[in-house]
Write a structure and sequence with these properties.
With 177 residues, the protein is mainly alpha-helical. It has 10 helices and no strands. Helix content is 79%, strand content 0%. It is elongated and about 55 Å long.
């Protein structure tokens, strides 16, 4: 009986000491998710990001990345929910605002898309991608002067513009700005 208690106690100590060796950190799961995402394994990436979130529910980047993976799979509502959580955990995350804006854009909620792109730009005035995305929404809404304004800002900060978009904007607006 005593030897059984000793064995059980020893097993308990061993398992207690061995388990932490195998436990991954939230950042390791985040990294693994990024690796899976890069090769197009979105389901596995979502799993890895979820594990990171389980360990650290405040890890904004895990929510943002999982949102992008959900968007790749067409789950826009889940993506928007994750981008919203990323923003809740880091209100200065321009990329999360841009990503959520894009999801709203795809869903057809253009006013919310503009709002999020604008917030991304306020958080990072040199975020060319957010200007490019917002100018496309302004174009869709036939708000050509606002689209041109974003085009000029991108030019000033040294960003890249799509020549086909500029051609379409010139034609639609009747201006060669």
């Amino acid at each position: 009986m005593i030897w059984l208690r000793s064995v059980l106690l020893l097993m308990g100590l061993l398992s207690f000491n061995i388990l932490p060796v195998f436990a991954e950190t939230a950042n390791e799961y985040l990294r693994d998710g990024n690796d899976d995402f890069k090769v197009g394994n979105f389901d596995q990436a979502i799993y890895e990001y979820t594990k990171a979130i389980d360990i650290d529910p405040n890890l904004a980047k895990a929510y943002d990345n999982r949102g992008v993976a959900y968007a790749q799979e067409g789950s826009l509502d889940r993506a928007i929910a994750d981008f919203t959580m990323a923003i809740a955990n880091n209100s200065k995350d321009a990329e999360a605002y841009n990503n959520r804006g894009h999801a709203y854009d795809v869903k057809g909620n253009l006013s919310q898309a503009i709002h999020d792109y604008t917030q991304a730009i306020e958080n990072n005035p040199f975020y060319v991608k957010a200007y490019n995305n917002r100018e496309l929404v302004f174009f869709k809404l036939e708000k050509y002067d606002q689209a041109w304004s974003d085009v000029h800002t991108v030019e000033k900060i040294g960003g890249v513009l799509d020549p086909n978009f500029i051609k379409d904007l010139k034609k639609a607006s009747g201006k060669d700005q």
